[in-house]
Design goal:
alpha+beta, two-stranded antiparallel sheet, Recoverin, domain 1, single chain, globular, 27% helix
Length: 108
């Protein structure tokens, strides 16, 4: 039963569960919830991780390189064309390392 009946001095009072919920009637200020940064999608590296860890997370097929589509899954911008120094359409671990250092610092 949603309501609870109370018997006090011969009178019956119905009490709703919503009446017992805390409220702000005392005049205390409501506090805004703390803002948090969005977490990276599952399996995505965060900017604070090492380049090796990030490379491993992006190279899910263990090919030994990262493609443009792998990089495009990252939030923010990592300049793939600038990082791809030999212009083969892939970032090896050395190319990725240099790009990740800028990305992790919030650059590019």
């Amino acid at each position: 039963m949603a309501a609870t009946a109370l018997l006090v001095g011969g009178a019956v009072f119905a009490q709703s569960p919503s009446l017992t919920a805390p409220n702000n009637s005392a005049g205390t200020p409501n506090e805004a919830p703390a803002r948090t940064m969005a977490a990276p999608a599952a399996g995505m590296p965060s900017r604070t991780e090492s380049a090796d860890t990030a490379f491993d997370k992006l190279d899910t097929s263990h090919r030994g390189y990262i493609t443009r589509s792998d990089v495009n899954r990252l939030p923010g911008t990592l300049n793939f064309d600038e990082a791809d120094r030999n212009h083969d359409g892939r970032l090896d671990s050395n190319e990725f390392q240099r790009a990740w250092n800028d990305y992790g610092a919030g650059g590019q």
